[in-house]
Specification:
With 599 residues, this protein is α/β, with parallel strands linked by helices. The strands form six sheets. The chain has a seven-stranded parallel β-sheet.
């Protein structure tokens, strides 16, 4: 009887709308994530625009006319727009790093600001440009009161660019110097004076071994400029011994995990003191604010042993704080499924951002490839640690702040396409992430028809009224408005389409937790059909997409028990014979069809 009651309870929880359930009980795959950069989202408190600093933009970092500087958005702005985000259908908000950043860095004439959050000096507090620790607590509490989760974007690989090398002129790039050419036990190369006696190398990751690494001048001679000796928090981060100090990464070979990321100080994450230090830093954020997950920046540039210790420690810390389904996903910015899977198997990261899915969507819905790209993508799901269960937890996306907006890629592939066609392709891509396996992740602004002009800063437009010339001259999809006015229009056609899809996903367990089978695909643009199955009732939900600009009519295989279909989106037909249903789709359209109870 006890087992029957537990099974009945599990069935009830799996089928009830997730908005009505305790948000702590939701699995990572139940969420729909909304990703934003606080500085570019909404400016609710102009008093913090300059971060409490005086002077020009090179001191304050504030210049809303320049894409490379702070524009004024803040955490209070995110809190003020939670209703807008929730109405879109998002159940979790992922915020770009909020930690104290070096306001401005870069050589003379090439300065830029840390508005994006990835140039951290103080890992323990909120950057004053974005608000206060109390503001962040208010955001998390307000989200939780709505049944929404908050994910933090965290950085371990590097800090802001503070450390300098004597051998390099100020601002000049420092080429990477390898362990073979510059071993830890000699100063300046194999012929140099002996140093760090007895150090057995970074592969021996014990406290006793790293106690013998006392001098950081094996490759370069690092130093901290006057006035910045104590800028980093916690204080141990100010000591160059806790950094690799080997010059700029080439992003190949050993430099991928040991080189400075475009000059940023690369932390020696092999050192047990560093491992313990970051566990303390980020564990404290879980304890203090009860956040619900971490997105890990530049995860592929950190040695696997660090993650093998860090990720379990964070999950344990979260569980102790009453957070049973803490979601951790790393940024591994490559589309190759084997490489992505490696970081779940070797590094033991619970999940990674699904750059493979993004490529499949770009190649098909924003390109000219066949729909069989999804066959190849999903065939690799078994490679992940825990196989398909891990694949279900991969955040899927089509746009982001580094690689550009989906609409921009559509315009590159189809320069003659009308704005209507571009918008249909954008909606089609969002239909893919909201119905196929994985955790849909929407990049702020996509729902308002943002197009952008490329990658990085060109895809980080203000959602509040912008003063940036290169943003103001952009045309938006689905509206005659421009970036000169705040873009939070709940009647925008893309916003409405995503909201409808999110509502369907929330109410349909098969689209959140269901296993999936590719039913139809081809080597040219056209039909992609996928079945997903309710985790409790096992009823089928058939999803079909048309990535071509011609209408489609085709027979698609379904389960023989699936005789009738309710139309969740589009016009669904009854099975024409056991195991076959006729699918009819307009150009660049999609349908979602839920099978009824078997007869």
């Amino acid at each position: 009887m006890k087992h029957l009651l537990l099974a009945s309870l599990a069935a009830l929880v799996a089928t009830m709308p997730i908005a009505a359930a305790d948000y702590r009980a939701r699995l990572p795959e139940d969420e729909t994530i909304y990703f934003l950069l606080p500085d570019r989202f909404d400016n609710a408190d102009p008093s913090n625009d300059r971060g409490g600093q005086a002077g020009d933009r090179l001191h304050t970092g504030f210049d809303p006319t320049d894409t490379a500087f702070y524009h004024g958005g803040d955490i209070k702005g995110v809190t003020a727009k939670l209703d807008y985000i929730q109405k879109l259908g998002a159940t979790a908000v992922w915020v770009a790093p909020i930690f104290v950043n070096k306001a401005v860095q870069g050589p003379p004439g090439h300065e830029s600001a840390g508005y994006h959050g990835y140039w951290i000096t103080d890992f323990t507090h909120v950057d004053p440009h974005l608000g206060t620790d109390a503001d962040f607590k208010a955001l998390v509490d307000a989200a939780h009161a709505r049944g929404m989760k908050v994910y933090m974007d965290i950085v371990v690989n590097h800090t802001a660019d503070v450390i300098r090398y004597r051998e390099c002129a100020d601002g000049a790039p420092c080429p990477y110097r390898s362990r073979a050419d510059y071993p830890y036990t000699r100063k300046g190369g194999p012929a140099g004076a002996p140093i760090n006696a007895g150090f057995a190398g970074d592969a021996v990751q014990s406290s006793a071994n790293f106690a013998k690494l006392t001098r950081p001048d094996y490759a370069y001679t690092p130093y901290v400029p006057a006035g910045e000796e104590h800028v980093k928090v916690p204080a141990w981060l100010n000591d160059p011994i806790y950094y690799h100090n080997r010059g700029n990464s080439t992003f190949t070979g050993e430099s991928s995990t040991m080189g400075d990321f475009s000059g940023l100080d690369d932390v020696m994450t092999e050192n047990p003191r560093v491992v313990a230090g970051f566990i303390d830093i980020y564990g404290a954020w879980i304890d203090r604010f009860h956040v619900d997950g971490f997105r890990i920046d530049t995860a592929r540039h950190v040695n696997p042993e660090f993650w093998q210790a860090f990720a379990p420690a964070m999950l344990k810390r979260a569980k102790a704080d009453g957070i049973p389904h803490f979601h951790i996903f790393g940024e591994v910015a490559v589309p190759d499924v084997a490489t992505l899977a490696e970081h779940t198997r070797v590094d033991k990261l619970p999940a990674v951002l699904d750059f493979g899915f993004r490529k499949a969507a770009l190649d098909s819905a924003a390109g000219k490839a066949g729909t069989d790209v999804f066959d190849h993508l999903f065939a690799g799901d078994s490679l992940y640690e825990d196989g398909f269960a891990t694949a279900d937890e991969l955040p899927t996306f089509v746009s982001n702040h580094d690689n550009g907006r989906f609409a921009w890629y559509v315009k590159q592939a189809f320069p003659q396409a009308s704005d209507e066609e571009v918008m249909r392709r954008v909606i089609l891509a969002h239909a893919m992430i909201l119905t196929l396996r994985g955790v849909p992740t929407i990049y702020a602004g996509d729902e308002q028809g943002f197009v952008g002009k490329g990658e990085d800063q060109a895809a980080r437009e203000d959602q509040f009224a912008s003063r940036t010339p290169s943003y103001l001259d952009q045309t938006l999809l689905g509206t005659s408005a421009t970036h000169a006015t705040a873009r939070f229009d709940e009647d925008h056609p893309i916003y409405r389409a995503i909201a409808d899809l999110a509502r369907i996903r929330t109410a349909t367990p098969a689209l959140r937790r269901g296993t999936q089978i590719v039913r139809a695909s081809g080597d040219t643009p056209g039909l992609l059909a996928v079945s997903r199955f309710d985790p409790v009732t096992h009823r089928e939900v058939l999803i079909a997409f048309n990535t071509s600009t011609a209408p489609i009519a085709a027979n698609v295989q379904v389960e023989t028990a699936s005789r009738t279909f309710a139309s969740l989106h589009g016009t669904c037909a009854a099975a024409t014979a056991p195991g076959s249903v006729r699918v009819t789709l307009a150009p660049l359209d999609y349908m979602i069809c839920a099978a009824g109870a078997s007869e």
